[in-house]
Fold each of these.
Amino acid sequence: MPALILQLTRVGFLLLLFLFVYAVIRVIRSDLRYASADVAAASSRRARKDARRQPTGPDPSAVPRVLVVTAGHLSGTRIPLNSNTILIGRADDSTLVLEDDYASTRHARLTLQGTSYWLEDLGSTNGTYLDRTRVSTPVPVPIGSPIRIGRTVFELRP
Amino acid sequence: MSVESAEVPGKRSRRSAPQTNPDGTPTVRRPTGRAAELGLLILVAIIVTSALALVELNQNRALSLALLWYGLAFFVVFGVAHLIVRSIARYADPLLLPLVALLNGLGLVMIHRLDLANTAKALRAGDDLPSPIAPTQLVWTGVAVAFFLVVLMVIKHHSTLQRYTYTLGLASVVFLAVPAVLPARFSEVNGAKIWIKIPGAFSIQPAEFAKIGLIIFAASFLVAKRTVLSTAGKRVLGLVLPRARDLGPLLIAMVVALGVLFMGKDLGTALLLFSVFLVMVYMATGRASWLIIGLLGFAAGAYIAYREFSHVRLRVDIWLHPFADPSNTGYQLVQSLFGLGTGGIFGTGLGAGRPDLVPFANTDFITAALGEELGLVGLTAILLCYLLLGARGLRAGLAVKDNFGKLLAAGLSFSMVFQVFVVVGGVTRLIPLTGLTTPFLSYGGSSLLANYILIALLVRISHSSRMPVERPAPPPAPLNEAMTEMVPIGDLRGGTA
C-alpha cells in the first residue's frame, strides 16, 4: 500500500477512536445536565408545594422527626429519629423490636437519604406494606403514610 | 441457577409511565438513553469494520465485500442485544454496551491480525499452517452476548442474588478448587494448573467465574454484617479488630481462594481477589484501619511468597532485570517493550507492525500488540474506554438506593478496572507480570463469558438506579386499622395496569 495512504489511514483511525470517546463523554454530559435539571425541578416543585400546603395539614416535604407506632402490641411507642438507620424486625438488635409471628428476624429498614426516609424490605417472608402496596424495591416514605409489618402499623411524623 | 421472579420491579412503571406527578406538575422527561446507545453502537460497528479493512490493506490482501458483511454481522449481534436491553432494562446505562462492543471488536480484529501473522510465519518456515483462532473467538463472542442477555432476563432485580449469598460463596470456592484436585492432564495449560479441560470438547478457566460469584458473596455478606463490623470488636493499637464470628465466613472464603490460586500459580487472580475483598471491606465499613491491616498482610504475604516460591521469584527477577536474560526468561517482556517502543506515539498502523514477535500476543500480551500498532494515542483511547466503563459502573453504584447494589456495582467495576491495571502494568513493566487476561480484548472464551456476565449485572444495577422513582400517591384515608387482606395474586400483578 502506498506510504501516504498508510499514514493517512493510521491517523484517521486514531481520530475515529477518539471520536468515539468524545461521543461517549457527550452522552455523559447530557446525562449530568438531566440529573441537575431533575434536582432543580424537584426543589422548585417542593417550593411550590410548600407555598400551597402551608395552612393545612402536615407538610410532606419536612424531615420526619419521630416514628409513631399506631397499631399492634407496641401501639403508642414513639421513637425519635436521628440520621441513623432504623432496623425493624424480631432480632434483639433491631431499633424497633417486634414480637410478632408475622414479622421476620430482620424485616425492613428505614434509611435517611437527603431529606426523606427510604423504606426497604430485607427479604421478609410476609412482606412490608406502605399504604396498601407491598414494598419490593426501596421507596421513599411520605410523612403520615402508614407502614404495616405483620400486625404492627407505624408512620413517620414531623 | 434458578431465580425466583414473582416480583418484577420496573414492569409496573413501564406499563404506566407517568407523564405527571400525583400533584399535577409535569415530570422532567429524562431520556432513557437508548437512542444514544444505538447511535454509539453504529459508530462502534464503523470503527471495527474500518479496523478490519485497515488490517487487510496493510497485509496486502484484497478488500472484498465480505468485510462489510463481517461488520454488519457484528452490528447485528449487538443490535439484537440493544433491542432486548430496550425491552427488559430500558433505563440501563446507555454507555456500557457500546464500550464493551468496541473493546470486544478491537480484540477480534487484533486476534485476526495475529492469525494472519502466524500463518505467514508458518508459510515462511514451511511448517503446517496453524488453525486460525479468530473464528473461535467470534463464536465465543456470540455465546457471550447470549449469556449476557440470559443473565439480564433471569435476574430481574439484583437483590434476588442476595438470597443465594452462601450458596454462591461456597459454589465459587469449590469451583475454584476443582483444577487443584484434578490430575494435571485435565487442568494444566502452559504450567498453570487453573483449568478444567474436557479433552476434545472445551476447557474453561473457573477463576474467571468464581471471581464474580465471590464478589456477589462478599457484597451480600458485608451488607448484612456492616453495622457489627464497623462497631463491635477489640481495640488493638488504635485499630478496631472485628470479632472472629463476624468476619469468619468471609475470611475463610478468602484464605481458601487465595491458597488455591497460589498453589495453582495463578498469582494474577490471587492479587485481583485480594484487592477486591480489601476494597469492598473498606467501602462497607468506611474504616481506614482495614486498608492498613490488608496492606500489611499483603506485604507479609508477598515477602513470604518471594522467599518460598521459585516461580514468584522468577517473575520478580524478570520484572527488575528483563534484559539480564533477554532471549530466554525475559524474552516475552523484552519483546513487548520493544513492540511498544516501535509503536511510539502514533503506532505503526493496524496490520503494519510485528506484534506477533511477542509470545502469547493474543491473550496476555494483547495490549502490547495494540500498543505497537495503535501507539500511545490508540492505547490511551482503549484505556479511556476501560476508565469510562469503570466510572459508569461506579456511577450506577452511587445512584442505586440499596446497599447491596452499591457494594456489588462498586466491587464489580473495581475488579474490572484493577484487572486492566494489573495486565497493562505487567506488560509495560510497571509491576511484575502476572498472567491475567485483558477483559474483552484477549482471546479466551471463559474470560469473555465471565466479563459479559459481569456487565449484565452492572446493566441490571444501572437500570434500577436510573429508573425514575414513582412517588406513592398521598394516602386516601387512614389505614391504621387495616389488617391483613386476602388479595388474589392476579390482582396484585395486574392491578395497576
Note: Chain A has a mean pLDDT of 80.
Amino acid sequence: MTQRTKLFLLNHGPLLTTVAIFLLAYIIGGQLYPAMQKPQVFFNLFINNGSLLIVSIGMTFVILTGGIDLSVASVIALTTVASAVLLQNGLPPLVVMPLMLLMGVAFGAVLGGFIHFLKVQPFVVTLMGSFFARGMAYIISLTSVTIKDPFYNSLALTPIYIPFVPNAYVYSYALVGPMLFLATIYLAFFTRFGRTVYAIGNNEQSARLMGLPVGRTKISVYAFSGFCSALAGIVWSIALLSGYGRYAPSMELDAIASVVMGGTMLTGGVGNVIGTLFGVLINGTIVSLLQFNGTLSSWWTRIGVGALTLVFIGIQSLFYVRRKSVG
Amino acid sequence: MLETTDAILLMRGISKIFPGVTALEDVDFALRPGEIHALMGENGAGKSTLIKVLTGVEHPDNGSIELAGRLVQVRSPQHSQSLGISTVYQEVNLCTNLSVAENILLGNEPRRFGTIDWRRMNALAAQALKRLDIDIDVARPLGNYSLAIQQMVAIVRALEIESARILILDEPTSSLDANETSRLFDVMRKLRASGIAIVFVTHFLDQVYQVSDRITVLRNGRLVGTYDTESLPRVELIAKMLGRSLADLETVSRARAEHELPDAQSLALKATGLGHKGTLEPLDLALRAGEVVGLAGLLGSGRSELARLLFGVDTPDAGSLEVGGAPVTRHGPGESLRRGIALCPEDRKVEGIVKDLTIRENIILALQARQGWARYLPESKQYEIAERFVRLLGIVTPSVDQLVGNLSGGNQQKVILARWLAINPRILILDEPTRGIDVGAKAEIQKLVLDLADEGKSIVFISSELEEVLRISQRVIVMRDQRKAAEYGKDVNAQTIIHTMAGHQ
Amino acid sequence: MTPHKLLARVRESRLFWPLTALAVILLFDAIFEPGFFKIGIIDDPVYGPHLYGNLIDVLNNGAPLMLVSIGMTLVIATGGVDLSVGAVIAISAAMGAVLINPALGDRLITNDILTADTTNTPLPLIILADLAAGTLCGLWNGFLVSRARIQPMVATLILMVAGRGIAQLITNGQIMTIYYTPYFWFGNGFILGLPVSIYIVAGVALLAWLLVRKTALGLFIESTGVNARAAYYAGLDERNIKLLAYTFCGFTGAIAGLILSSYVHSSDANNIGANYELDAILAVVMGGTLMSGGRFSIVASIIGAIVIWAFTITMYTFGVPADALTAAKAVLVLLVILLYSEFSQRLLGRWGLRKGQRHDPAH
C-alpha cells in the first residue's frame, strides 16, 4: 500500500467504517427479510428519523468543539407543546414556526453563554437546560395537545413521490433533515465558522492563540444546536400532529450515539456531518431490522447502539494512535 | 552595557516578582534585526519569564519595552502578535486536525462571497512555504507531518498572518532529530537574511554555536551578560550559566573530603546498560551504600531522565537494574517505594505537592502509599511524623494542618523532601532539591544529605550548581547529550567538569 | 478561640453552604406554609405506629438520592463523574423485580401466580443479586475509566445509553409490578417510628465514612483528585483508586434501585431513577466538592441531597406538578452554578484571600 492510500485510509477510516457497517446491516437485512428490499423501506428511514437526523446534525457541531448538548430532546418536547398551544390559540403557522426557531436559538445561546463565560462543564449546563425545557413543556400543558391546523395537516399528509423510483415517497417534513444536511456541509467545510469549530475541538488554546473567535463560535454552536432542536421539534409536531411534554424521551442519547457511530470523536475536532447521516441511518436500520424480525424486542436497539458506541470509541482511538505514529 | 544602536527591541530594567520568588531582577535585553540571538540559562534562570513578559503573558513590575524606538506596553499575547512579536513553541500551538493551508491562513483566509476559496488558499499556503524551500502537500492535515514540519508551518503562519518582525523560538529543537534540526536552521538563516530578529531559546550548546550570532545568559533571574557567540568559548558559557567564573571555581572548599566512604563493598544499586529510547543512551551506574553521587549536567543532558528511569516513572527499554542485589523486573513508583528508592522530583508544583492537602497529609503520603490503603497510620502517629520533620527541616508554619498550597516555595520543597525522608529510603534520588531556596536552607539541606549518607543511605544528588555537587559528592557523573560523558572521583575539579560538559574531553 | 475565628471556621466548613440552603428553604416553609413541619404518629396496619409528615417524607423520599450522592461524591472527588447512575438504578430495580416474580423459570404463567404475594427466590438472594448487578455496572464504568482510559463523561455515557435497554432486557420489556410484601419493607417500612431507608442511608454512609476516613482511601482519593501526577510519583496507583470509586458508586446506585422499586412497588425500566444523574451531581457540588476533584465530605453531600428533596417536597406542597418540577430544579442548579462559578469564586476569593494572608506564615 502506498503511503498516500494509507494516509487516506487513516484519515477517513472511521467514516468508511460507518458507511460499511450501514451497507452491511442493510444488505444483511435485505437478505433476511425480503420485504426490506423495497425502496420505500429506505425512504422510511428518513421519514421515521427526520427529527433524529436534525438534532444529530446540531449535536455533531457541538461535539466537534469538544462539548455536548444533553438538552436537545427536551427542547423538541418543549417545541411541540409550545407550537401546539400557540396554534390552538389561533396563531398562524408562519408566525409559530419562526417563533419556535427563535426560541431554540435563544435557548441554545444562553446555555452556550453559561458554558463559555462561567466555565461550567457543558454536560452540567445542558442537563440543566434539559430539565428546564422539559419542565416548561409541562408547565405549558400537562397533557397532549392535538394540532388541527390545516397547514400542518397538509404538510403531514401529502406524500412527495421520489422521481425515478416507482411507488416510493416521503412526506415533506422528511426533506428538512437532508436539506439541513447539505447546508451544514457547506457550513462545516466552506466557512470560517465551520473551520473554527474544528480548530476549537482540536485545541481550544491553540485556536485562541491563532486569533480565532473562540467564545463567539462556542456560543454559536450551542445556539445552532438549539435551532436544530427547535426545527426537529417542528418536524416532530408535524409528523404526529400534536405536542406533548413526554415526546422524544432520551433522544439526546440516540443523537449522541448516532454522532459517535458516524465517526465523530467525543473529545472533539475529528468527524463530520456526513458520518452523522450514516450514524442516524444505522440507528434507523437497527430499528427496522427489529421491526421486520418481530420477535426481537425494541430494547435491543438501545443495547446495540450502546455497544456500537463503545466499539466506535475504540475504533476512533485506534485510528488516532495509528495516525499519530504514521505522521 | 546595553547596546542601543539600531536595535529593534530594547528591554530595560525588567523586574518581575511572583509571591515568594523574584523571577526577574533588573534585566536588560536588546535585539537587532537580522540576528539570531540565543537566550541561555538553567531552569529558574528567568528565560521563560522574560519571554512571557515580551509576549504579554506576564506584565513586568518594573522596566520598559521599546519596540523599533517606540515605547510599548504588551498587554496580551494577541497584542504582542499585532505588534509583530510571534512565538513558536516546542509543543506547536496549531490545530493538527486542520490542513496545513488552514493552519497557515485561517483567520485571514481568501474568501469569495463569504465562502472559503480553497484553491486559492492552498496556492497561497504552498507559495508561502516555498519561500522557505518547504515543499509539502498543503491540503493534508497538519497532524500527518513531523514535528519539524509543524514547527515550520507555525513559523510560516507567524510570518504570513502576524507579519512578525520578531520571532521567538522556544526550545524548538527539543523533539527534533539531527536532520530536522538542520532543516530548521536553514529556515532560520533564511529568515535572518530577510531581516527578521530571532530569539532562540534552547539548552543545546552545539546548536547555539551552530546558528546564533549573540548569546544572552540569565541566571537566577538576573542578567549575566550578552556576548558575541564567536568570542565566547563554550567553557566560559557554561561557567556563566552555572554562575562561577573559571578562576572562582578553583577555590571551592571541599567539605566532602572529610566524608570518606564507610563501606566501599556493598552495592545498593547497579544499573547495566540502562537506557530509554529518545531520552537516555544506555549507561552503567553503581551506587554504594553511604555514598553521595553527584549528577552534573546541563538542562536536557539526561540527568533528570536518569533519575526518572531509576525510580521507575519511565520504564527502561534497554539494560537491567539491580537494587540491593535483586534484579528489578517491575518498574513504577509504587514498586520503587517498596524497594526503598525515593525520588524527590524536579518539578515541585506538578510532580510534588498536592496543594489542597495539609502539610501532614503531604508528608505521610508516600509512607502511606507504601503501607497500603488498609493500614492507615493512626492520626497521632501522623502528627508525630509530620511534626518531627517540620522541626528537623525547619519548615516555617503555625501548624502541620496548614494547606501546603499556602506555603512559600522553599517550605513546599522541604515538605516534599520530608515526604521522601519519611519512608526512610535506602536510596534517595534528589533532583534539584535546593532550587529556589534561600542560602541558609540550602546549607541545611546539604548537611542533611551528608548526614543521611553517614547513616548508610545512598544518595544521587542532581543540581545545576556545580559548587554544591562538588562539595557533597564522593563521585561525580557528568551527563551530556543524553549520555554519561564521564565519571570522576572525589579529587575532580570544577574546570574538568565544565570541560566535560562542553564536550572537550 | 475568638468568636471571629469561630465564625471563620463555620464559614470555611463544608457543611456551611448546604446547611444555609436548607435553612433558607425551611425558613421559606415556616413563613408560607407553617403546616409543613407538622409531624404526626399514625398506626399503620402493616408497619405499626410510626411518624408521618413532610419532614419524614423528605428523609424517606430523599434516601435513594442520598445513597447515590455518597457514591457520586467519591467519583467526583477523583476528578470524574458518573452519568449512568439512573441506568444503574433501573438495572438493579429490574433485577429485583424479575427475581421476585414467582413465575421465574418455565412454569405456566397465570394471573394468580403472577400477582401472588410470594416468591420462589429467597429475599437475601434477591437483595444480593440487586447489589451485585449494580456493583458490576460500577465495576464496568471503573474499568473503562481506569484501564481503557476513556474520559469519565464518555465512559459512563455508554452505560447511560445502553443501561435502560439492559434493564428492559432483564424485565423482558415489562413494567414489572411487585406483589411480594416483605420486599416493600425497604422503601415503606419503619423502625422505631423512622423510615427503614434512613437506617440504610446511615449504614451506607457509615460504611463509606469508615472506608475513606478510617483507612487511607480518603487520602488517596483526594490526592488523586487534586494532583494525579504527584500522587503517582508518591507511589499511589490511581487506577485502582478510580476503579474502587466507580464500583462503590455502582453499589450505592444498586441500593437506591432496591429502595426505589420497593417504594413504588414496581420496576419501570424507562422511568425509575430518571434524572438522578443531575440531582446527584447537584447534591455533591452543593456539598462543596469541586467538579475537578479533590477534597470531599460525604456528610455535606448527604445534606445536599436533603436540600434537593426539601425543595422538592416544598414544591409539592405548593401544588407544583411533579413533571413541571424539573423546571424549578433547573433554576436551583443555575443558582448553584452561579454561586460556584469563577466569577463569584473570585468575589468570595478576594474576601477569603485577605483572611488567608493573615494566616500565612510567610507574611
Note: The radius of gyration of chain B is 25 Å.
